[in-house]
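Hello Y.,

Per our agreement to keep a running log of every chain we model this quarter, I'm adding this entry. I've kept the format consistent with earlier entries: sequence first, then predicted structure.
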Amino acid sequence: MLALSRKVNETIIIDNNIEVTILEVKGDQVKIGINAPKSIPIYRKEIYLQIKESNKEAAESTTSDDLLKKLFQ
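Predicted structure for the entry above:
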């Protein structure tokens, strides 16, 4: 992991097209702004993990062969 120090209104650039700017620091909270192309999804990690788990559960759920046959009749 790369660790950088930044002050309010300072920015880092990732991959030439993603900007992360420190907007505000209050106590132990840091507010950041992210400017990236719309094609790049950006999630908080806890939300990303929920999506990942949900996708895993959906992929693992099994549908009976009879139900599939009914759908295609």
